[in-house]
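Build the 3D complex.
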Amino acid sequence: MASVTLRRLSKVFDGGIQALHHLSLDVRDGELLVLLGPSGSGKTTALRCIAGLEEPTSGDVLIGDRLVTHTPPAERDVAMVFQNHALYPHLSVRENIAFPLEMRRVGDAQIARRVVEAATRLGLEDVLDRRPAQLSEGQRQRTALGRAIVRGAQAFLLDEPLSRLDAKLRIELRAELLALHRTLGATMIYVTHDQIEAMTMGQRIAVLSEGRLRQVGTPAEVYEHPADVHVARFVGNPGMNVLQGRGRGMGEEGRVIEAGSLVIPVELSTYEGELQLGIRPEHVGLCAVNRGVGNADVLVVEPLGSETLVHLNAGGQALVARLPGFVDVRVGTRVGVKVDRRRLYLFDAAGAPLA
Amino acid sequence: MTWRGWAVATTAAAVVAAALTLSVARWAESRYERAFAFRIATTTADYLAAVTPSPLTRRGSPPPPVTGYYLPQLLTQARALQTLPGLTSDVEVYHGTAPLVDATAPPLFPDDLERLASEGRAWRDGVALVPLKDRHNQDVVGAVAVRPRPTPRGPLPGGMGFAFPAALLAVGGAAAIAFRQRPLRRGGYAAAALLLAIAAYADVRGAARRSADRWLHDTRLLIQEAATRLPAPRSRVAIPDLVSLIRDAELVPGEPAESAPRRLRIDGKRRAVVAVLIGPGRWVELRTVPAEAYTAVWLVVLLGCAFLGPLGILALRWAERTPRRQRREAVIAWGFLSPAGLHLALFSLGPLVFALYLSLHRWGREPVEPIRPFVGLANFAAALRDPLTWTSLRNTAVYSLYVPVSIAVALAIALALRGYRRGWGARVLRAAFLLPYVSSVVAVALVWQRIYQAGSLGLGRVDWLSNPNTALLALMLLALWAHVGGQIVVFLAGLERIPEAYLDAARIDGANAWRRFWRITFPLLRPVTLFVLVTGMISAFQVFTYVYVLTRGGGGPLPQHTTDVAVSRIYQTAWGSQDFGGASALSLLFFLLMVAFTWAQLRLLGKQVEHA
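Done.
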């Protein structure tokens, strides 16, 4: 096992699209790091640069102490699981898992032993002689995992491995992957756009947006202390409400932020002018009209059982409230809005946090 | 539809099919009657030309037309026809436009003669008109008109044919089955249709037989009459004097026999014959091809017509049972399919069936050999015995070896081009490779002919195409060059369909380029490779143009059959030896060989690869 280090990695594609901007990242030995970002944020490009499938325009990739920026993929000793699993369709499960060993000229007896070992670990013993087309989606993904772990690589790269599975299977395999990570003690870089996956799996999360690294930290850090508006918006389900606001003074009561139809008193003395106000949906509540910090119109109500999401229009700004249990509100009615004033996040107009 | 409506529709279908069958049969019968009328009219014209004395033979008469006939004599001979006992038709002879036999009959129009001169014959109001030519068989000086008298159409009471009662029976049967809702429906309808077709065919065959018999009968009378009337100085009439009467039959010395026409098999060929007495104790035999021997095609046509009934009933049943929407869709689908289907039937299936028919007959070119007897498998046996057949098959097999080579070359180039899909250089290259494939085959062949000529392009003093050792190789090189472009395009399309992810995965798994190709790309390309191989093999087997243009079909003197491939052998057999039956047999043998070979290729290489 080895650490993976990216140093000021940039990638510009032929069409002039810059997928990565000076990405620097340190993945520790044995760590499971999640690369999180919306689609097009450059996370897959970063992964492919680590694997050697893309050559970076500038910057370096290190695996352990080795500089591998221009080393072909075969010599980097990494394993990768692809989003569409990329199982060789003309080979059986056994042959698929054996493929990397065969390519490294491992002896037949050892190949057979290690394939069975990997297959047993993933519960594939019964389907070893089937072709990928004859497998369920879950079995295919397990086979792809098998092909990755059979070799004992320095680092495992997983490119949205669970995105094609249905919700139930995804939860199941998530747990299996975590168990696998624990037993192998392997360095894993896990790319996903699903922030729940990121929160549940990552020891650390690296949030990418528009090719730039926004924040690296534990799930709690990223959630509680988002480094900027992008991270705040992206992490959490649904993400943080970000309202365009304006701070100003208002007599003896101190200062307030006006955002749409809301007027929220804050303990902020130094700032005046345009700013962005972040509120997590769970910190928004409803009350009678004119009793809260402002009024809003109910656009959509999504009852989820354990909680209800209420989408609001607060003077032209979108706001989501997450309320426990079922809530009796009608679409189209006007309600009052409460916010937990201790849990507000303030960002400047450019998106950087205000102290 | 109620069952009564259903029964009415069924009966209507049966009536339509029966009416169609009957009218086709009637039409065929009248065709045979016309054929007889034209034939006997021609014979009569020839008879008149033979028996009317030359005007030069009579002295002291006014100067007659030089090549025409002396009218009083023509009048005498024509009138004599009227008194000839037993003729089955009414005959009229025109001199110019004037009728000679029945003076009160309406004359011809002047342009009738012109039409006869240009078209050779005419049919008007139940009368067959043929020209009466002068002695040198050049100018039309008159006409002979024959109106065949009605004859019984069948042996049934009242001279009725079989078809009409059979049609009544068939329609009645169909109606009875439909209205009574009898269980054995389809079988019953089919049996009724079969009965109808066979009865109608019996009538048509009878009409054909009658047409031959009547001609034999009437011609016998004319020959006997001619034997007594041939002008002086003839005293004893001999066969050579009479053959001018019977252009499309044979006249041979014969034995005494009754005057009715008979059917005989002479040297394995069927003939209709009649004995003719041309002098005391002197018999000849008049032989002709029996028209009924070539009526098989009518059986096919009539079966087709008659089975329209059961087919229509099947269609009705289908329409009744199928939900409306499905019916609509099926009708629309068949509507769209029908042009292609019709085209396929007319231009693919039809010729195939005809080739099968040809291959079972001796079939030469028309004027040389009008008789095309059934010979069974003799054509096939002859083809298999001919060493040139085997030579051509071996040459074809050797020639087709260029296909695997061109596939390898095409795949290599496609792999090389794949990396540079965007640059204009790659586009130019691709177009350059494709150019020979889309160029005119003959033009390409002619260019290569120049290249292969001795001394060109520094290829040495060998003339590749006329040297038996290199001629086939030269053709293979040309084929390789011409076909590689098309194969490259197919391979490029195939490569594009292989997801990049497989190759990425293999890269990470440690496979180098060589192994990526053999373990991933090539297996995944298998369907494409198979397609290129099978189509390439088929087109290699069918090679003809290059061989024909470059070495004149391989049968020429120079390459000594070394470039004689299967199709050129077929061509030589058909157009060189004028043996269409043999050529068809060869084609079918070759077709079977190709089917077997292609099937084997598909079986051996065609395991399906599913993409997951």
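The CA atoms of residues 346 and 448 of chain B lie 37 Å apart.
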